[in-house]
Structure formats: structure tokens, C-alpha cells
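At your convenience, could you comment on the folded chain following this short note?
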Amino acid sequence: MDASGTPSGWPLDDRGPAYGDGLFETVLLRDGEPRLWAEHLARLARGCRVLGIPLPARAELERPLAEAGEGLAVLKLILTRGSGGRGYLPPTEPEPRLRWQLLPFSPAAERWETGVRVRHCRLRFGIQPALAGLKHLNRLENVLARAEWSDADTAEGLLCDSEGCLVEATCMNLFWRRDGRLETPRLDRCGVAGTLREALLARLPIHEVDARPETLESVEALWLGNSVQGLWPVIRLDDARGQALRHWTITPDHRALQAEAHDLLGHPLPA
């Protein structure tokens, strides 16, 4: 196992930068303590099983925690299959390479309080059930989707798969309340199963559903969330041209789901 806190200097034959052959986790640290650590480790372990990459020892994964100081920080763990193999053929006995990066973090607290504006993206995710849910290193679809807008007023873009089913935002999961019921897109064909999403599914009666983008125009409340930023209420939904489709006012329903999510992460609840 090659483990280092310096993400620069990858060998040219490392399969991570060469093929996206690896996984990553982005973890919120509060005074050096990782939030949702069990969920992050479980997702990483599942990704290793699917890709056939040996899972590093827990001590190796937790080594960066000793370098974190007080306050909020984000730990990015990057695990590749390492070097070797001929072309796409992976080595029969891979020697994984683990890298990490620690960065200070300040949450966008105003988005918790006042909510955000989001838009639909034109790009469609390809359907690949074998990789569904994993946080693998191939994220070019997300990069292309995020390039669709540059205005600072739009916080996120929502994506569907190639058959028109809602999946997620570019870097956050989706939740909504419809007819009094909490729902989130099913992620068995593509998308990333976020650790905050997993924790909320275990904690609350949230139903995984197949839904079209027009579904969102009739929901009572809409949120975006991930394990670093927490939960943002959505107050405006635009189409891919930036034209408004729906507005929402923040209600106690929005705050109730926020309270559950922020309790898991240690984030404060807006007044």
C-alpha cells in the first residue's frame, strides 16, 4: 500500500488518473472527528468489492485524521488500483495507491437559511447499473453538466438519466415531499449514493422512487444535500435555459428535514 498526503506526483502509469480506475470519499471533519465515518467506510468497501481493489486497512484510512486540527475541514481520500496491467486489463495482484488532502472548510450557511435556486441540466447520465451508487473517479458527466451554467445565483444543476428519470444534482442528492411523503430518486442504474442520503434513509421513512423532472413542479418542498454542505432548501427551480418553473417558500417542513440532516453532521439549524 502506497499512502501519502500529497496528491501531486502520481506515476504516469497509475490507473487512477489514466483510466479513472479508483474511488474517492469526501469527508466532513469537525475538530478532527469524521462525520458519517461508518457510512463513508461502508461505501468505500462496497466500491472496492465491485471494482476488485483491495480495501486499505482502517488504520491507513484513518491516518490523515491525526493531522486535522480544530474547526471544520474536509478530508478527500483517493484510492486507485495503483500501477500495472496492460492497457485496460487490470493487474491480477493490484497494489492500491492511497492519497489524501485536508482543506479548511466554511459551509455556505446563507444557503441553509435563505434557500437556493437550481436548474435542470441538458446533459443526461449514462445508465450503468454495475457502477450505480459508487463514488468512482470517472466524473466527466458531472464536469460537463456543471459547465452548463456560470451565474452565481444558480447553486446547482439537476440531472436525469438517458431515459429521463431524475437522478441527482451535480454533487448533491435530491429529496422532496410529495403528497406529504418524503421521496428521493432511486439510484440502482446510475448516480452516487451519498452518505448523508444513506444515513437519512436509515433514520426516516424516505421512499426511493422513479420520477420524471416534471414531478418536481408539483412537490410541496425540495432539498439538495450532501455530507459536507448539509441540506439546502430549494426556493426556485429553472429549466435548462434559466426560465423559472416553480417557486417555493421555506416552511417548517423544510426545517424539519434540515434538522435531521444537520444533527447527523453537527451543522447548526437556521433560526
User: Anything to note?
Assistant: The radius of gyration is 19 Å. The first helix runs from residue 15 to 19.
